[in-house]
Amino acid sequence: MLQVAQIRTDKDKAVKGLVKRNVANPEKLIDELISLDDDRKELQTQLDAVLAESNQIAKSIGALMQQGKKQEAEQVKLKTSELKQQSKALQDELQQKEKLLLDSLYQIPNIPHADVKEGKGADDNELILEHGQKPVLHPGNTPHWDLIKKYDIIDFDLGVKISGAGFPVYKGKGARLQRAMLNFFLDEAEKQGFKEIQPPILINEASGIGTGQLPDKEGQMYHDESTDLYLIPTAEVPVTNIYRDVILDEQELPVKLAAYTPCFRKEAGSWGAHVRGLNRLHQFDKVEIVQIHHPDNSYKALEEMSTYVQGLLKKLELPYRVLRLCGGDMGFTSAMTYDMEVWSAAQERWLEVSSVSNFETYQSNRLKLRYKDADNKKHLLHTLNGSALAFPRILAAILENNQTEKGIHIPEVLRPYAGFEWID
RNA sequence: AGAGGAGUGGCAGAGUGGUCGAUCGCGUUGGUCUUGAAAACCAAUGUACCGCGAGGUACCGGGGGUUCGAAUCCCUCCUCCUCUGCCA
After folding, report:
1. Å between A45 CA and B50 C1'?
2. Keyword annotations for this protein (predicted)?
3. Which domain does A72 fall in, by range?
4. How many domains, in total, are found in chain A?
5. Is the pTM of this model over 0.80?
6. Cα separation of A172 and A182, whole Å?
7. What ipTM was assigned to the predicted interfaces of this complex?
8. Each residue of A224-269: pLDDT tens digit?
9. A205, A218, A151: which is closest to A404 by C-alpha?
10. Are residue A93 and residue A137 in the same domain, yes or no?
C-alpha cells in the first residue's frame, strides 16, 4: 500500500499516477485519504492527552496507597470514571478511523513509474523488442491440444475425472519434460545468484495481505475454510513473506531468491476458446524469482531480471517479444511491469510466459520490510519478482513450434534434463 | 488428537497488581587506558505513532476482559517443549 506521508508531500504525483491507471476521480480519492489521516492524527493526539492524565492519576493513587493514605486515594479515584469514558470513546473512534484509512489504502493501486505509459488495456502496451524468427511449420501442423493427444503426453480428460477442468495430468515424456524444465530453470537461477527456496504452498491471511493478494482479491485463490489457509497463486507470496517484519542491514542487500512451486488459481469467469489446452489452468508449475533491493538499485535490478528471463527464452530457442505494460493493464501492486510473450506458432498468437515487476515500496510497506542505513535510520526496501518461467505455455510453444512430420524436437538445453531428443 | 508446561528487548534470563518500557549478564557501538591488541573501566544500545520541540502515547506471543492502575489476574486464539496416541 501507498505511504500517506509520501502522498502528502507529492500529491500531484499520486494523482497523475492514478490517472494513468484510469482510476475514477483520483483527486477526490487522495483528498479523502488525507482527510482521514488528518482525523486520525487529531484523535490520536486527543487520546494521548486523556491517557496521559489517567496515567498521572493512577500513579498518584499508587503513591498515596503506599503512604497508607487510603481515604485520599479513594477521593482521587472518583475523578477517573469520566476520563475512562473519554478514553474508551476516543479509542473506539480512533480504531474505526484507522480501519477506514487502511481500507481506503488497500483500495488504491500502486503509482506507476514515470516511464509507464497511459492506456486502457492490453492493446496499449508498449512493444519494447521482438526477438527470433517465427517458425514456418509443415502443412498439417496442429495446436498443442491436438499434439498432446497424438503423442499421449498430457491428458485433460483424466484431470477432469480426478479434479476438474484445468487440472491436466502429465504422462510419460510429458511428465519428464515438466521435470526437465523444473531442473533447468532452477539450475539457471542458481547460476545467476538466486538462492533456492522450497516454501509452503498454503499460506495464512497475513501473508496474503503482505504481498497484496488480500483483501479484495480473495476470488483468485483457493481457500480452505476449516484452517483459514489459502493455496498460493504464485511462489511470490510465501517467498516474499519470508521477509515480512524484517529489518535488514544494508550489507545484506540485495536478496535474491528462486523457488519452484505449483500455483493455483480459480480464474473464475475467464474461460473460453482462447484458453484452450495449456493456455490457462487452475494448477500449473512455475519457477519464480524474487529480489529485495535498495531503492536506488531496484530499476537496474528490474532490467537485469528482464534480461535474465530473455536469456532463458533464447536458450529455449523460442521467438519472443517484450512489452512494457501500460497503466491500464498493469497489476494492482506494480510500479512497472515487463511481460515476456512467446510465439505459439500453431495457435498463431503470443502467450505470456513471464511477468517481471518492480513493486517499489508498495509491498514492503505492507510487509514492514525495511533496511537500516549507516545512521541506523530505517527505510522501506523495494521488492521485485518475476516468473522464470511458467511451465505450461512454454511447453505449449515448444510443442507447437518444434513440431515436424516425424515428431516434436526438444530444445537442446532441455535434452540432458529430459533424457530424450524427440517426442514421437 | 488428548494431558501437562512455557512464550519477556539481538541472545540469555529476572520480574506474579503500583514510579516496570521493564534488574543483571552476554553481544553490539562509541570512548578512556595501551606501541598495538586483549583485559579493565565509562557510556550508548527495541519498535511504532503524535508533536517544530520539550515531551507524550502504545507495545512483555495475538485478541478481548477485570482494575484508578496489568508483563503480573481472568477468557480466548496461536506457537513451542514434554508425555500418550496416530502417521509419510
Report:
1. 6
2. Aminoacyl-tRNA synthetase, ATP-binding, Coiled coil, Cytoplasm, Ligase, Nucleotide-binding, Protein biosynthesis
3. 4-106
4. 2
5. yes
6. 16
7. 0.85
8. 888 888 999 999 999 999 999 888 888 888 999 999 999 999 987 6
9. A151
10. no
